[in-house]
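User: I'm new to structure prediction. If I give you an amino acid sequence, what do you actually give back? Let's try with this one:
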Amino acid sequence: MATVDQIILVFNRLQANLEQLINNTIEETKNSLTDDIKAQLYAGTDATGNKITPRYRNVRYAKKKAFLNPRPGLFTPDLKLTGALYKGLFALVYEENLLFSSNVDYAGLLEKKYGIKIFEPNRSNLNDYITGKFRPALFHKIEVQTGLSFQ
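Assistant: Good question. You get back a string of structure tokens that encode the predicted 3D arrangement of the chain. For your 151 residues, that looks like this:
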């Protein structure tokens, strides 16, 4: 059985390392959010759940895209043709924010045209990430460091 002094020492160590534990956990789990963003884009929706706009203007191109991916509906962009944008999606921890984009040269142009919400997870995906990925991974790290058990 631990003494009060030992418990205080464990919690002081946890407090000193908590920010690093959180950052490490985000780094280890953030790719699940980029997968969620790919699914949103493929469905033709942004982080708010709205259809991506502006819509395709060229009827032939819109029909071609709908044939390749009917999920978004006719004229709604899914921003996928070669797959490079989707493959290049990444999450970056910057200061206290988690930022999303793609490493393709034209990602900035797409953000300007379709809005920054195209590269963000929707609320449902973010909640699923927090409860299903981030929190369990963080709790595990705290359990390993402190010997406590979250149940």
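You can read the tokens as a compact description of the fold. Here is one thing that stands out. The first helix runs from residue 4 to 29.
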